[in-house]
Amino acid sequence: MLRIGAKLFRAATIGGSLFGSSQLPPPRFFSVNNNNVNTSSFKTNPVALQMINYALSLARSQKSDESYAQAQLVLEQCHSAQLDESAKGLVLIAMSTLFSERGNFGEAIEKLQKVQDLGLSSLAVKVAASEALAGLYLESHQDDHSSATAEICLQLLETIRLEIGGGGSEFLEARAKALKGLVELVRGNVESAQTFFEGAQGDKGCFGNVALSYGEFLHCKRDFQTARELYQKAMQDVSESKDFTDSQSLSACNMNLEESLLGATCSLGQLEAHLGNFDDAEEILTAALKKAEEGNYHPKVGIILTCIALMYRHKAAMERSSSLLIQEGLYRRAIEVLKAPPLEIEGVEAKLSRRDILALARGGYAETLIVQQNRKAEGEKMKQWAEKAWTNRRLSLAEALEPSESSTKVAVIDTRISRVL
Length: 421
Known about the structure:
By secondary structure, this protein is an all-alpha fold. 66% of the residues lie in helices and 2% in strands. Helix 10 runs antiparallel to helix 11 (224-239) and helix 10 (209-220) packs parallel to helix 12 (257-274). The chain starts with a helix and ends with a strand. InterPro entries: TPR-like_helical_dom_sf.
């Protein structure tokens, strides 16, 4: 397979420009002037696309350390041959995505920050890199870094609009605003988030991640009908797109098209459960689970299993039935897939990544144990762990586990960033 990559590499070189948790490093600021940002329309080289698609296919074909290492080698060769900085940026975005898929967020963030340092890089490339960078920070619970990254992206677009005149298209501005809105929602600042989502549904840029994030915001506010429409739109948009073909679909890491489709599907399933449409919810969440199991989404399997367990919990409460055995099995499997630390390691000391989900899964599991007299002590210990691990600022663990029609709050799990909104 590497011989094929070498041929593509030579063809691209001859034909012109090529495709073109410890604390993670903080975001870096970059200057903006009409000499360092390419505000022209987004273009891709056909040979470059062939090269990047080959590398991604090579990495994912076997899903092994060796296949990913070979793919990175191909991309490194591509990057070294580039003169066009937009092409360099596209290669760096592809490299960051592969690092992210292997859980190497540090390397992924380093590649994304290099995109910000590029001079004549396409504006679409910079926005996609900022979106991915903020997404990785959110998944790592480094919310201040994610907020700074989103703010930098907004300032970049605003500066270009004021000083250069135009430059930033409507959908790039919509992406930057939706990114900042998502960050604010994660931080529990619902009113602040609303200012960034206002008018998003009517924007031309309400596409993919924008539609998904806005849908999650409305879902949290219990505007279920509009949220459903946005989830369905996001699913349709992403299904009809391909990475790296245009500025709308260009994305990376945990914000890429596959992650967006999985996230929209899972969010729609949660919404149907909140509406009491449990047959639809089960069908949709099962489809999301199958997608996660087929792809490179092993931790996401645990997240979706948690969503399914919560759906059964909500169904049992509404129908006054019992599904303890089903819930217990789902929670236990989710906790296993998520590689939860022993209960002896307190929640506040646990690994930050997917901490909200682990707290939710263990909190739900604890409730199934507490009602069993011979396992009550085990359940109480698990409940204490979950309460200490819970960090959501908008709602308590009890509120997340017990949604009610009278409550104005509802928990939504975003599989892209592995957080509870």
